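Illustration: PHD-type domain-containing protein.
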Amino acid sequence: MQRAKVVKQLMVTAGCNLEVAKPRDTLLYEGRRGGGQVPKPHKFQVGDFVYIRRRPRTGMEVATKPAILKLVKIQRDGVVVLEDNARTKEKSTVQNIAPCHLQVKDEYDLTRTKPSKHLACEDCKRMDGKAFMLLCDTCNRGHHTWCLEPALDVVLEGDWQCPRCLAQEMVASFVEVKQELAEICWFRGSPDR
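Result:
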């Protein structure tokens, strides 16, 4: 009996709280629904870390967390060039990216890493000759000095990139130059000039 009285007393208090909160919640809902609260557009800068909001998936792909990408270039038409950890580039639009608010290490310093004892040469697949192993600063793969074309007599000091990474970098820079030239030619040939 005593419990029923306590519950009855608390129900009145809870009901009063709901009555007070109802107009506030209604106004908040109407403000959001009616467009009263419009999110501010985010201004991206080169070097920002972002992720792609909407990535079309096929039925065979597993849903994963979005990859964090680095913004490399912003073009005038709203297209952005993004780069991941493996330095592969992809394009998206400003509307499809969102800022990443996580603390992300910019890059790992691969020049300070040492080859593992069990690191095999990418060319001959052998693990011997550790003293003559060169480590690529881009892909972190090892190559013997004698397996390279042309073969090297000494281990080079400082930064070094393997032939595959050099070729990828050359192709990427060629594509960028080609796109810039196309933009310049399109701008010069536009009828409103």
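Reading the tokens back as a structure: Confidence is low (pLDDT under 50) at residues 108-113.
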